[in-house]
Amino acid sequence: MNALEALLARERRRLVALLARHLGLAQLALAEDAVQQACLQAVQTWPRDGTPSNPAAWLYRVAQRAAIDQLRLDRHRAAWPEDEAELPQLQPLPGRLTRELDDDELALLFAACHPALPAASQVLLALRVLGGFELAALAPLFFSTEAALAQRLARARRDLAGCELALPAGAELPPRREAVMTALALGFHQGQQAAAREAREVGGEAGNKALEVCWEAIRLARALAAHAATAAPEADALAALLLLHGARLTGRTDAHGDIVPLPGQARDRWDAGLIRLGFAHLADSQRGSSLSRWHLLAGIAAEHARAPRYEATDWAAIVGYYEALLPLDPSAAPRLGHAIALAEAGAPQAALGRLRAMQDEVPAALRAHHAAALSRAAERTGDLALARSALQQAIAAAPHPAEALRLQRRLADLS
């Protein structure tokens, strides 16, 4: 990602939040479109004319004028400051985790997770706010189609008309905070998957533009844990989870852009600074009296982070975390993780039983992972025919070529 692309990715959400505050949430789509127009104009003019001294303010002014033009076309009226001195002056700071949170950013995420919307629409809108993800990429997460998500997104924006862009308080806060945390975790996951695809397409790590979404999800999770209105042990647990997964991003692909599975990752390539931050947030998360799914997921990530090598991983502890997690979240992903941990902990027959029991209810997004886990468990029991057959199913269901290539190499080893 070049410097211009990085700046635009970093400022997009801040500008949408600020413009949405002025326009009102009913015009959230207009705010997004106006900021996109400003970014396109920057890509066209800055390389030729030079980057402005205050790039964020330049983008805001261009987006603001685009929004005004559209409002005039729609015969709406809005009051805007004429004097440029009255325009908000945004001062972006460098660094992938150091920039301070703008309250408008956090308020926009909480507005997206408004109780007036169905739970799935809250997370969908928050994901769009977070990373501007294409609906085609989000459709598998919601077991839906791109067209259906577009309709749901349009309804959500209409339903928010008249809602205030502000942080909630009292009884409204915890459920909306949970929806925001879910969106941040899903956003990180989507960025991670997109980064693997991009690395393969460009033949290395340098093209991982999608990692910017991962860093933003981490930054917002840490800000959520630090903000006076939103701080909670669960928020620290989420920050720990994303930091510990973020630390491993540098080891997930090799110089050719191929995916490196966890057993083969060089742990000296993991980011030690992010691991330390993750453990600090994990310690802070223990100040509460309740155990959330975020605590348990962070505990699993911590076991991987503290193991000096893959063979030294405490799989029995990870199995215990999953067994505590399943009553809180019995969905397919933790059930699959539990089965994988059982196989690694020395109970491959039990793992096979659990994987077969869930075979008919595995969502499309997890089919390749499920088949690969079935193959690994079968291999550990000595059933190489089943291991090869399951691996062929995993290759057929692989979501992108980088994953398929990794599985094909494993099949070659089995053969």
UniProtKB/TrEMBL annotation:
Annotated RNA polymerase sigma-70 region domain residues: 10-73
Signal peptide (UniProt feature, chain positions): none
A Pfam family the protein falls into: DUF6596
Stretches assigned to the DUF6596 domain: 176-285
Domain of life: Bacteria
Alphabetical list of PANTHER family matching this protein: BLL6612 PROTEIN (PTHR47756:SF2), BLL6612 PROTEIN-RELATED (PTHR47756)
Record NCBIfam families: sigma70-ECF
The protein, known as: Sigma-70 family RNA polymerase sigma factor
